[in-house]
């Protein structure tokens, strides 16, 4: 690995660390200030809440008997190791590495929650009437900073692939 690639790798790992630290800090604030189920209205469409997600995205498997905690810890750990390898293999691909760094920081944040609490702490809640056909009373499922970083990373991975394919077809 060249010295430039090594510097890039450390920058991406630094971004992951910043995401992880912001995620954990905000969760500590929520856990310290809110009881489970507490809700504070911020605007007409945004609340701070404290909810616990024992499942995955949109509470997938949340009602399982408890095995899902260990499954998601294992899955998140394997995914984090794979993402570290991807960052090491492609540190100069900016958009790709940005995406992987975001997903890595968020994934590790949620894995740490599962280890410490047994669930993921979610606290950002948006609601709009136009969401009512999809979600009860228009409330989008609550999420956290880690989930936001993972979603941003996923979007950037898709964008990176679209740009890569477009570049290949125009060359």
Using DSSP, what is the number of strands? 3
State the helix count. 4
Helix amount? 55-70%
Straight-line distance between termini: 28 Å
Quaternary state of this entry equals single chain
Beta percentage is 5-15%
Largest sheet: 3 strands, antiparallel
Provide the spatial order of strands within the biggest beta sheet: 1-2-3
Radius of gyration: 18 Å
- Unreliably modeled segments: none
> What shape does the CA trace take?
globular
Query: What string gives the helices and strands in order?
Result: HEEHHEH
**Rounded average pLDDT:** 90
The secondary structure category is: mainly alpha
Number of domains: 1
Structure description:
Strands 1-2-3 form a 3-stranded antiparallel sheet. Strand 1 and strand 2 form a beta hairpin. It is mostly helical and 171 residues long. The longest helix has 31 residues. It has one domain. 60% of the residues lie in helices and 11% in strands. It is built from 4 helices and 3 strands; from the N terminus they run H-E-E-H-H-E-H. The radius of gyration is 18 Å and the shape is globular.
Task: Offer a few descriptive terms.
mainly alpha, 171 residues, 11% strand, 3-stranded antiparallel sheet, globular
